[in-house]
Structure formats: structure tokens, C-alpha cells
Automatic annotation (TrEMBL):
This is Single-stranded-DNA-specific exonuclease RecJ. Residues 343-435 form the DHHA1 domain. It comes from the Bacteria. NCBIfam families: recJ. Residues 452-557 form the RecJ OB domain. The keyword Nuclease applies.
Length: 768
């Protein structure tokens, strides 16, 4: 069995009329039309706005709250030559916001500089010490980008000093806003902007557009970069910004981004929204995580590619260092995770882990375990780090009521940062266990995964792939369509990148489908077996190699019913047979006593009747043969492991034993009546030689004779019974047991792999 990470939601298209209308109007396939309708674009008007986003469809920037005040004050500062400082943030949205605002003000002739705080010494958002330093250096107007609404007290100090403050932000609004010269925010309570989902870069782009009195299309690439990197919804105005920004990036990338793309080995023709999310953004973010995000703004504003190249190469190298740090810390954290298996929320901590990457580490552990995770670096008496959560658990609420255990704390439901005294580590873990119970985390539903359609291998074609691109750019709010495929069998399972990832071939009813599965390396062994049913879900991907283009599924999730059966039947057991990390189940107590010493931790040996329903077994090995199929069925209906490995060892199989014929019975009957007091302890081999018969055949006949009371055996001495009562030997218990054992061995040992898999799957099915 492979449990899905998500709750799959399949489409239920009721409005077939809308599907047909969109398909005919826009010349798109029914599949694309169904996806549009399923996402709410069920009229020609809404679908047209989605499929054909134009710059002319952008909203008037003066609809934003205080935009008129902002532009008036900026022009006043420009005219008077006032010293303006753009105050940004150290993530990609902050860097791009800073670059956009600085570019626009410089273009208008302003005396402007920018300041990007340090993640390590300044922290996020308004910082009074920095404000005071900038004021002492002659700042006359502060313009915040991607931050500021949380700085009530800090802004009040600046205003009291006669320094005006323009806040441009998009973050959650506090109960009490700062008293500033102007606050530009798409969700300002006194505003009525049509779209509240702008990023910080999106807000800066709107200010730049208002300054220029036309859309600031020269910085649409930066606005797109900030929007995607900050995981904003790619709908409404953001879709226009990102689609047009990506086109600008493809056609004429600014020098800094061109150099960065070249350093990463990315071709301009390959650029899409994933290029931002997986190539550009991580590299720029590595600056804020490991060094100084100011360098990122410099790179974005450079106008000479030769000057940009060395900086871009440095950023690329820094990103590689960041990746190595993440891998090293994640590996160390995984060792702790194994010891915290019963904790609903994971808290891992290590000496001198790099603070700048702990959010990424926490995210990776959430992805691997499905559990909310906090990763902390220990520096003497204090621990500092980041937490990431799942939709079913509000991390901020869980910790907000326990601030007495922390030095500093902040964040929201899905992510938080904190500083904790080292001595409070265990208490924090206990608190989180209690909070998990309060929020009913254990019983929470899995996050949903929206399936666009059920398809087969035949549907992975160039035509369908090209059709899907009309829905791009993909991202938050407009995810790449996910397709479900029923799989009959899995072939060619291979791991990649030191076992982290997988590639395999899924056999479907219409042919083979290549599958790439990032982060699923731990399922490689399970996929070597066969399930009663297996479904995969993922996106359609194009792969070009040596001039040949194929189409594959990029796995998002999979689910398999029944245990994966891996046929390891054997007639010989050695110490090497018992590999680690498995539960070895015995049916024969003598085998259990003889062989359990070969099995060491973390593996375990157990008799079949001691298996509990509460056990979560990943790999269950059936060492020897059960007494009956009903015994095996009872076991398989008690627990369903992730992988079932039948070995079914039997010392003396009866299936290969020759069935005695009438001549053999007659020969033995004559023999026992011809000799008296045959000592089987000392004369059995002589009897075998005399009768020219296999010893197991002779043993079987003698047991049947004993059942039929044709002979008696006392203290190992055999004698015939005079004038025995005639009896059909096939009615003896010995013969019936023999035939039952032959049948059991035929089904479990001498069947084909396919026959065995079918039998085991049927035995494991729960009665309805």
C-alpha cells in the first residue's frame, strides 16, 4: 500500500454547454475547455479575459488608496531635490520592489538611494535603529516597499522628526495602521481597489506606472519575478503582470537577469513561470539567506552585462552553497525525525545550523513527513529558527499563547520565526503536542489535490501539451493541470540523485508512460512489487534529449491499494537472507526459535499470531509456509504492510514428492507382514533400500497404515496388525493432510508470480 499525500478531488463538470461554447469560440480542445469551466471561467467574457490578458486591462493605479497623495509627495521631493530612501526587504519580492521603485524615481530625476535590511542583524520590516541611522545621514523622505504597515511606532518616530513616510506594502494589515504621509496597499480598509492580491513588487509597479502616467512595462519582468517568487495568486491583474513580464524576460532580458540565466544554464526559449520559481528566485534568495540582499538589487539594476556576469556567477555559486547547506542540515535533521516519530509536530535542532536556510529545511521536512516542522539552530543558551506548517494546523495560534517560553516570535498560520531558550526545547515539544490535540491535527483531512482529468498514456502528446500552454503562466491560483492515470504495472524503477528521486515506466491500458517523481525515492523498493491497483497524478511534461522530444508525467502524488508484492520465494535460508528494516513473520515456531537470532534491529522477528492491527509495517516478510490459506488470510486482513515479501520456506516440500501408487502400497503391506519387530530407529534405512523406495514415500505410507490401523508402532518398533479391517486409504487423515499440503504448496510455492500476487491480494481484501 502507498498512501496518497493529498485528498484527490476529481472534476464534476455539469455545464457541458459552456464547455462546448468555449471550445468552439476559442478553437481549443474539449479538455482545455473543461479545465477552464472547472476553474470558474465558464463564460466567453471571463474565459477571454483569462486567455488573452493585455496590458490595457490593468487597473488604473490611482484606484489604490493614497496613490494621489503618494505621487504628489514624490513629485514635490523630486522638484526640491530631497534625499529619498527606498527601504526594501531581503527576499525576492523585496529586492524587485526596491529595484522597481528606485528605477522609477531615478528615471524621474529623483535624488534616491535604497536600503535593504539584513536578515540576521535587522530582521524583517521597520527597524527604528536603521531609520535613525538613515535620518542622521540626511534622509528627508522614506518610501517603504514590500513592508511598512507593521511599523506604527517606528513610523511615528520618523514623522515626529519631520521626515515624511510613504508606505507601499501588501502584507496583512494590523489592527492599527501607522500614521504616515501615505499608505498604498491593495487591501487598505478605506480603499476600493478591484484586486487585493498584488505582491510588493506589484504595488511598486503600480506606483511606478502612476509616476510615468502609463504602465511601467520596462519593469514588468521585475514585477512578474516578485509576484511568482512571493507565491501570489496568478489570477486577475497578477496574470497580466506575469504573462507580459515573462514575455519581456524572454525577448529582452535585463543584463543582470540575462547573466544570471546564463550562469544557471537556462535558455531564453525555456523560460516560463517555473524558471522564476526554481531558477531565478532561489539564486536571488540565497543572497538574503547567506550574505547581503543589497547585491541582488544591484544585479537587477545593472545596465551592462559584462559587469553583471561576475556578480551573477557569484550568486550562482552562493546558491550552490545554499543547496549544500540545506542538504547537509536536512540529512542531520532526518536522523532526529526518526527518533521523534510519535510527535505530531516536529521540532529539530542542531548546533550551528545556518539560520538563513532553516525555513527551507523545515519546508523539506514537512514535504517528506506531512507534519508541521520547526527547525532551530542552537547557539549556546538560545535557539533561533523557522517553522512551516500544513493547512490543518495553525502554527501561529499554537505558539502565540506560549510567548513566555520564547524570546521572540512572529509569523502567521503556515510559517513562523522564533527565538527560544535552549532549555525550553522539550517544553516547546510538549506544548505543540497539546496544541495538536486541541486543533485535532490527527483527524484532519489531507490537503486537496485538484485533478483536471483522467487520462491514459495515449493522451501525452505534443498536441495536448501545446494546447495546455494557453492556460499558462502557471502558479498559485492557476496551478498546472494535474492528470490522473490508472497504472497496470510499473517497470524500470530507477533512483536518481543519491536515492532522493525516482523515474519509472507506468504501463497503462494504452501503452507505456515515463514518470519522473521528485522526492519519492523512498518508494523505489515498494514500486518493484505489484499492487491490486495503482494510480498516479501529475502534470504533463515535455522532455527533449538529443533532438528527440517525448512526453512524460511529472508526479505530484500516487496511491496504491493492497501491499506491494515482491516475490522472494526460496528453498534456502541463510543469515544473509535477513536484510535490515523489515518485519519477519513466522508461522512455524521451530523456525522462529532457530532463525530469530539472525534478525537484528531495526528489523524484528514475530510469530504471525502476535501481529497487531496497530502495527504500521512498511515491509513484511513471510518467512515460512502457513498451515493453511485461512491462517494466511487472517494475517493479511489484520495488517496491510507497505510491501509484502513472500519467501515461504519449507524444509521438505511435499509437492515434489511422488504420489504412492497401488503397487507401492502393496509392496509395503507385504513387507510389514513378512517381518516382525522392525525397529524404525535403526532399521528404517535398510527398509528403504530393501523396498527401493524414497524414504519420504515410505514414511507417508507407514503413517497412512497407522491411521488405518494396518500397523502398530510402539517405542519405534513396527508390526503388522493381524487381519486388519479394510479401509480406503484416501480417507485417512494423513492422506488428507498430505493432499492439503500439496495444494497449499502448489498455490504458494509452485505458482507463477502473477498467480501468487492475485491470490495474496484476494486474501488481503477486507470483507464488506
Amino acid at each position: 500500500m502507498i498512501n496518497s499525500r493529498y485528498q484527490w478531488e476529481k472534476p464534476n463538470i455539469q455545464n457541458q454547454k459552456a464547455v462546448n461554447e468555449l471550445s468552439e469560440t476559442f478553437g481549443i480542445s474539449k479538455l482545455i475547455a473543461k479545465i477552464l469551466v472547472n476553474r470558474g471561467y465558464d463564460t466567453v467574457e471571463t474565459a477571454n479575459a483569462f486567455l488573452r490578458p493585455e496590458i490595457s486591462d490593468l487597473y488604473d493605479p490611482f484606484l489604490l488608496h493614497d496613490m494621489d497623495k503618494t505621487i504628489e509627495r514624490l513629485f514635490q521631493a523630486i522638484d526640491n531635490g530631497e534625499k529619498i530612501v527606498v527601504y526594501g526587504d531581503y527576499d525576492v519580492d523585496g529586492m524587485t520592489s526596491t529595484a522597481i521603485m528606485t528605477w522609477a524615481l531615478e528615471l524621474m530625476g529623483a535624488n534616491v538611494s535604497y536600503f535593504v535590511p539584513s536578515r540576521f542583524s535587522d530582521g524583517y520590516g521597520p527597524n527604528l535603529a536603521n531609520y535613525q541611522k538613515l535620518a542622521a545621514e540626511g534622509m528627508q523622505l522614506l518610501v517603504t516597499v514590500d513592508n511598512g504597515v507593521s511599523g506604527k511606532d517606528e513610523v511615528a518616530w520618523l514623522m515626529s522628526q519631520g521626515i515624511d513616510v510613504i508606505i507601499t506594502d501588501h502584507h496583512e494589515l494590523p489592527a492599527e495602521l501607522p500614521v504616515a504621509t501615505a499608505i498604498v496597499h491593495p487591501r487598505h480598509p478605506e480603499g476600493s481597489y478591484p484586486f487585493g492580491g498584488l505582491s510588493g513588487a506589484g504595488v511598486a509597479f503600480k506606483v511606478a506606472s502612476a509616476l510615468l502616467e502609463e504602465p511601467a512595462d520596462e519593469v514588468l519582468d521585475l514585477a512578474a519575478l516578485g509576484t511568482v517568487a512571493d507565491v501570489m495568486s496568478l489570477t486577475d491583474e497578477n496574470r497580466i503582470i506575469v504573462k507580459q513580464g515573462l514575455e519581456n524576460l524572454k525577448l529582452d532580458p535585463r543584463p543582470g537577469l540575462s547573466a544570471l540565466l546564463a550562469a544557471s544554464g537556462t535558455q531564453l526559449s525555456d523560460i516560463d513561470s517555473s524558471t522564476i520559481g526554481f531558477t531565478i528566485a532561489p539564486r536571488l534568495n540565497s543572497l538574503g539567506r547567506l550574505e547581503d540582499a543589497t547585491t541582488g538589487v544591484q544585479l537587477l539594476l545593472m545596465d551592462d552585462i559584462e559587469n553583471a556576469k561576475p556578480l551573477a556567477e557569484h550568486v550562482n555559486e552562493l546558491n550552490q552553497n545554499r543547496q549544500q547547506l540545506v542538504n547537509d542540515i536536512t540529512t542531520a535533521a532526518q536522523d532526529q525525525v526518526e527518533k521523534l516519530i510519535d510527535d505530531p509536530i516536529l521540532v529539530v535542532a542542531g548546533e550551528n545550523w545556518h539560520e538563513g536556510v532553516l525555513g527551507i529545511v523545515a519546508s523539506k521536512l514537512v514535504e517528506q513527513t506531512g507534519k508541521p516542522t520547526i527547525a532551530l539552530t542552537i547557539n549556546g543558551n538560545e535557539m533561533k529558527g523557522s517553522g512551516r506548517s500544513v493547512p490543518a494546523f495553525d502554527l501561529f495560534t499554537a505558539l502565540d499563547g506560549h510567548r513566555d517560553l520564547m524570546v521572540a516570535f512572529g509569523g502567521h498560520a503556515s510559517a513562523a520565526g522564533m527565538t527560544i531558550p535552549t532549555d525550553n526545547l522539550q517544553e516547546i515539544r510538549l506544548v505543540l503536542r497539546e496544541e495538536a490535540t486541541k486543533q485535532s491535527l490527527a483527524g484532519a483531512q489531507k490537503p486537496q489535490l485538484q485533478i483536471a482529468a483522467e487520462v491514459t498514456a495515449d493522451d501525452f502528446t505534443q498536441q495536448n501539451f501545446d494546447n495546455l500552454q494557453v492556460l499558462a503562466p502557471f502558479g498559485e491560483g492557476n496551478p498546472e493541470p494535474l492528470f490522473m492515470v490508472n497504472v497496470n504495472k510499473v517497470d524500470k524503477v530507477k533512483t536518481m540523485t543519491e536515492g532522493k528521486h525516482l523515474r519509472f515506466t507506468a504501463q497503462t491500458t494504452t501503452g507505456a508512460l515515463p514518470v519522473i517523481a521528485f522526492g519519492w525515492g523512498h518508494q523505489a523498493v515498494a514500486l518493484d512489487g505489484h499492487f491490486s491497483s495503482l494510480q498516479v497524478a501529475g502534470t504533463m511534461s515535455q522532455n527533449t534529449f538529443r533532438g528527440s522530444t517525448t512526453y512524460q508525467l511529472m508526479l505530484q502524488d500516487m496511491v496504491a491499494q493492497g501491499a506491494a508484492v515482491l516475490d522472494k520465494r526460496t528453498s534456502r535460508l541463510t543469515k544473509q537472507t535477513f536484510a535490515p528494516n523489515a518485519t519477519y513473520v513466522f508461522f512455524n515456531v521451530n523456525h522462529y526459535q532457530q532463525l530469530s537470532g539472525y534478525i537484528s534491529q531495526p528489523s524484528k522477528a514475530v510469530m504471525w499470531q502476535d501481529i497487531s492491527q496497530q502495527l504500521h509495517i512498511q515491509t513484511m516478510v513471510l518467512v515460512d509456509l502457513p498451515e493453511s490459506l485461512s491462517q494466511l488470510q487472517q494475517l493479511l486482513q489484520t495488517v496491510v504492510p507497505g510491501r509484502l515479501v513472500p519467501m515461504f520456506y519449507v524444509k521438505n516440500p511435499v509437492y515434489l514428492q511422488k504420489m504412492p501408487d497401488k503397487q507401492a502400497f502393496a509392496k509395503v503391506f507385504k513387507f510389514v507382514n513378512s517381518f516382525k519387530n522392525i525397529d524404525l530407529n535403526t532399521q528404517f534405512d535398510a527398509a528403504v533400500n530393501h523396498l527401493k523406495m524414497h524414504k519420504m514415500t515410505l514414511q507417508l505410507i507407514l503413517k497412512m497404515f497407522l491411521d488405518a490401523k494396518f500397523v502398530i508402532i510402539e517405542n519405534g518398533v513396527l508390526n503388522a496388525v493381524p487381519n486388519p479391517t479394510p479401509m480406503n486409504l484416501t480417507e485417512t487423515k494423513t492422506f488428507q493432510r498430505f493432499m492439503a499440503q500439496r495444494d497449499l504448496e502448489q498455490q504458494l510455492i509452485y505458482s507463477t508470480t502473477a498467480e501468487l500476487e492475485t491470490l495474496l491480494m484476494n486474501l488481503s481484501k477486507q470483507e464488506s
